[in-house]
Amino acid sequence: MVSITPVAKPRMTRSDRWKQRPAVLRYRAFSDELRLKTPDMDLNYYTLTFGLPMPKSWSKKKKLEMDGQPHQQKPDIDNLCKSVLDALYLDDSHIHDINLKKVWTTNGFILFEASR
Question: Which of 33, 50, 58, 105 lies at a CB distance of 3.0 to 4.6 Å from 6, suitable for a disulfide?
Answer without folding.
Answer: 50
